[in-house]
TrEMBL record:
Keywords: Membrane, Transmembrane, Transmembrane helix. The chain crosses the membrane at residues 77-98, 104-124, 145-163, 169-195, 207-227, 239-260, 272-290, 296-318, 330-350, 362-383. Residues 207-389 form the Major facilitator superfamily (MFS) profile domain. Coiled coil: none annotated. One of its GO terms (molecular function) is transmembrane transporter activity. The keyword Metal-binding does not apply. The keyword Transmembrane applies. It comes from Calidithermus terrae. This is Putative glycolipid permease LtaA.
Amino acid sequence: MFRILPWRQRGLGALLRLMLAWGLLEGVRSGFYAGYLILYGPKELGLNAAVVGLSFTIHLLADSFGKGVGGYLVQRYGIGVVTIFGAGMGMLALYGASSVKSPLLLFLISGVWGISLASILPGLKTLSSRLAFQGREGRALTLTDGLTAPWAGIGLLGVGLVTKHNPDLAFALLLGGQIAAVLLGISLLGLPIAMRLHKQEYYPWRRLLIFIPAAFGQTFAPAMIGFQVLPFAQKIGLVPWQLVVLMVLGGGLVFALVPFTGRIADRVSPRWLLILGLAVLGVSMFWLASKPGFSEMLLLAVVAGVGFACFVPSWNALVIRILPEANRAAAWGTILMVEGLGFALGPSAGGFITATFSTVSVTARVGGAIFLALSVFYLIVLWRPFWKR
């Protein structure tokens, strides 16, 4: 088993505990805002859907803006401390936000809660890359994302279902998730992720700038159309079970291909896979704009899955190759901050474009153009492997 995994056996238990802690925290916050408060708030607290949605946006923006500093804090104080702090603040935020009737106070609580979580993900990515076998860092980060990302959907669907029948039980589950994360954080105290930075090694701003376009665009472009998927699917005649088939097909293909594409990115070079992945995703978005039928959408899901399977591991491998290890957690924090901004601003931009042109197809074409532009950008910038210069 340990030969299959990209990480060394020593330290793997701590990494898995940290993954579980972050997964629980992701599940709790998505479950609270999108599963609990959206159902409980309008009826019991007088908070309408717009207020709840804006509070979640503020929470995510605070988390995103805080990641730049959060990466530095985890380097200085360690992953155990920042996990305990984030989970503990989440417990207080749950108690406050579940009973507050003032929108302004809800916004304030949401912002503080978001900031308190900003250090954990940079620490998780840094620890995952440090525990990986040499040459497997890109695959390690890709697998880390794959194991933690589903928790947001689990929290949303699970808590939302329980809230409809028993809001008190739903809140107890949310609180239990936070308590479990605190206990996991305690078990991580003393984990040697904090590092003393060498005086001669400065924060890699010049190297970091190369990641900003893709960090923003890779989340901004999909987010523009992501929240409009259901009405778009209805418009082209897709039913829910067909959407599930498409998601399983595309997602399953990504997981099947990542071990192969990740090995190429780690051992050979990430640049051509990165460029190819971005180009394929751009073509997929333009194809989606043509409003294909279900049989054609099956082929589109395969193409998009190939695009993501090329892009994600090559993106992670590129970060590992370029950023110096001493500053990697802080640099990850900046990259994740930019990614979060793209994710938070994408829906607003997509909604504006769709409203202006009265069609989602234009929004999809804009997203495709962004991916293709990024592909051309990295074709130029990475024409020579500058990390070897």
